[in-house]
Amino acid sequence: GLKKKEVHVLCLGLDNSGKTTIINKLKPSNAQTQDIVPTIGFSVEKFKTSSLSFTVFDMSGQGRYRNLWEHYYKDCQAIIFVIDSNDTLRMVVAKEELDTLMNHPDLKHRRIPILFFANKMDLRFAVSSVKVSQLLALENIKDKPWHICASDALKGEGLQEGVDWLQGTFH
Ligand code: GTP
Ligand code: MG
């Protein structure tokens, strides 16, 4: 059949936000792993949608590894940014990291799409995706297409909506 267009995606966000769990759920069920551990450095994963083949750099969100992120900005064509909706204490840290990456010279003037997952919506104290977008001041992002979805990566809810949006930005 036809070869799918390849898209390089960077998956970013604080440690424990659910990045690896989300990427794992997007893979075909026979390729999913059962035990997910905190990412060391980064890991390269692949998943496909109806028209695209995504190569994802799933970065570690731990503080000591966040300085790795910027080395991958140049070659990425899309960003998935994951937020733990339940971790309101660290929402300011997530915002700082987001602001830093948005101002990075390798990303600043590029119209690359950013998909936000307001993850862990299943948890009792999770705030809504609208609240997350307010706390991160997403309305200030004027030069890039972006979209936010509430998700529950354990059940896989909300992931398809997000990936459909991302795929649509490449047509
Ligand atoms: P780092 O690799 O350290 O940056 O973390 P990460 O963002 O990849 O997080 P990871 O996918 O390892 O998930 C961290 C923990 O959150 C794991 O125990 C997951 O099972 C849990 N988790 C992920 N998504 C959800 C969710 O939607 N709801 C709930 N309740 N737990 C989740
Ligand atoms: Mg991880």
CATH class: Alpha Beta
Distance from first to last alpha carbon:
19 Å
> What amount of the residues lies in strands?
15-25%
Percentage of helical residues? 10-25%
The assigned structural class equals alpha/beta
Bound molecules: guanosine-5'-triphosphate, magnesium ion
Weakly predicted, low-confidence segments: none
The SSE string, one letter per element, is EHEEEHEHEH
Quaternary state reads single chain
What's the domain count?
1
Largest sheet: 6 strands, mixed
Structure, described:
This protein is of the alpha/beta class and 171 residues long. It has a single domain, classed as 3-Layer(aba) Sandwich (Rossmann fold), CATH 3.40.50. The chain contains four helices and six strands, in the order E-H-E-E-E-H-E-H-E-H. The protein has helices spanning 19-26, 91-102, 129-135, 159-168; strands spanning 5-12, 42-48, 52-59, 78-84, 114-119, 146-150. Strands 2-3-1-4-5-6 form a six-stranded mixed β-sheet, with helices on both faces. Strand 5, helix 3 (129-135) and strand 6 form a beta-alpha-beta unit. The two termini are 19 Å apart. 35% of the residues are buried. The model has no long low-confidence stretch (mean pLDDT 97).
